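Hi everyone,

Forwarding the result from last night's run.
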Amino acid sequence: MVLSDKQIADVDPTVSPTGDQADALSRLKCADLVDAVGRVHRHRCHVLDLVSPTPGRVLFGPAATISYYPSCSVALDPQHYNFANLFYDAVGDQPAGKVLVLASNGYINTSMGGGTKLSRLQEHGLAGVLTDGRLRDVEELAGYDYAAYCSGETTHWGGDLVTPFQANVPVVVGGVGVMPGQYVYADAAGAVAIPKGELDDVLAEARKIEAEA
């Protein structure tokens, strides 16, 4: 599983990998990165049991997060707490290359979005989306340029159960803590969150692990 030249080039230039980083990412797999992070930290960093409409695509970029919460039109005004508003709060004014991380907060069988809502990722050049919830319209998502990883497909709209609640806050996805700005990598084997500022060290360690294999 390799990162395409387009995926590397599309990352926001303020956070894009250097030449050495891009070369490493093109050669490594999720398992190498998980092992590398594990040699430095004790905390869990990997998310399993993910599916994708395009499993051959690699997802990589800095995280922009949205945390979902049970819907309540009285407590959470839908005019404010909706995907459109929270999306722009999350990705900011430099969305290109970012990974939108959607935390279901336990609603893993509920839709976090579908083709229409997630078309914003295509329009703004995001690297893709990672969620421990489900996604709708996966055939439509497969037609976009970005990578999408989730817990599975659903046909039911999720807005009657959950709503976007907070943007750019620490979230938990599949038991893994993800903070805004951390690097996220996903392929068909799973996903890994790499602590911010440690990408070089993790890649160097992952290269050693890959060479040992």
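The CA atoms of residues 64 and 91 lie 6 Å apart.

Cheers,
N.
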